[in-house]
Q: What sequence folds into this?
């Protein structure tokens, strides 16, 4: 996200400590302010990740919250 100059309010990514090293789950969480540029990114991410991405938009504060989870490698 930094290389693409995407400003995030909060973001994290990792691997669950409960998983085996060879068969692990990945997760990520990103919060970004909604605007035309990030709206296009969110649309692309929804098409690319389909059911592995949860997107929440909060009109009151104007952020997108993206949460992803991928089980296994």
A:
């Amino acid at each position: 996200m930094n290389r693409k100059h995407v400003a995030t309010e909060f973001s994290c990514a990792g691997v669950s400590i409960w998983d085996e090293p060879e068969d692990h789950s990945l997760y990520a969480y990103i919060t970004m302010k909604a605007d035309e540029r990030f709206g296009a990114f969110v649309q692309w991410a929804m098409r690319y990740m389909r059911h592995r991405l949860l997107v929440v938009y909060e009109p009151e504060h104007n952020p997108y919250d993206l949460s992803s989870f991928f089980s296994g490698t």
Summary: The first strand starts at residue 10 and ends at 15.
